[in-house]
Amino acid sequence: MSIAVSTDTRVKEVSVTEELITFSLMDGRVVSVPLAWSWRLSEATPAQRNNFEIIGDGYGVHWPDVDEDLSVEGMLHGVPAPRPKK
């Protein structure tokens, strides 16, 4: 007997708090990383954090006010955004 399970890793919902960036995925999983993993979002205002668009057929999220892009793959594999060298 086999059971069909959906593994649709596209983003359904996004939330950014003072501590976490959270993606709710189409298949029901919820993936979170620390806000500090995105220096751009950690330095952004709450209004800037809440201004996002789901891009790439749902495989990523873009924050136009701070020019930040995060992918589902990066969230699942735990890849923090590197801060540019000065």
Average pLDDT rating: 92
Beta-strand percentage range: 25-35%
Sketch the major β-sheet.
Answer: 3 strands, antiparallel
Rg over alpha carbons: 14 Å
Point out poorly predicted stretches. none
Distance, first to last CA: 58 Å
The helix-strand sequence is EEEHHEEEH
Helix content: 10-25%
Tags for this model:
33% strand, 86 residues, 3 helices, NE0471 N-terminal domain-like, alpha+beta, elongated, 17% helix, three-stranded antiparallel sheet
Short characterization:
By secondary structure, the chain is α+β, with helices and mostly antiparallel strands. Strand 5 (60-63) and strand 6 (68-71) form a beta hairpin.
Plain-language structure description:
This protein has helices at residues 39-42, 46-50, 72-77, and strands at residues 11-16, 20-25, 30-34, 53-55, 60-63, 68-71. The protein is α+β, with helices and mostly antiparallel strands and 86 residues long. It has a single domain, classed as NE0471 N-terminal domain-like (2-Layer Sandwich), CATH 3.30.2020. It has a three-stranded antiparallel beta sheet with strand order 1-2-3. Strands 4-5-6 form a three-stranded antiparallel beta sheet. The relative contact order is 0.21.
Reconstruct the topology from this structure.
Blueprint: E1 11-16, E2 20-25, E3 30-34, H1 39-42, H2 46-50, E4 53-55, E5 60-63, E6 68-71, H3 72-77
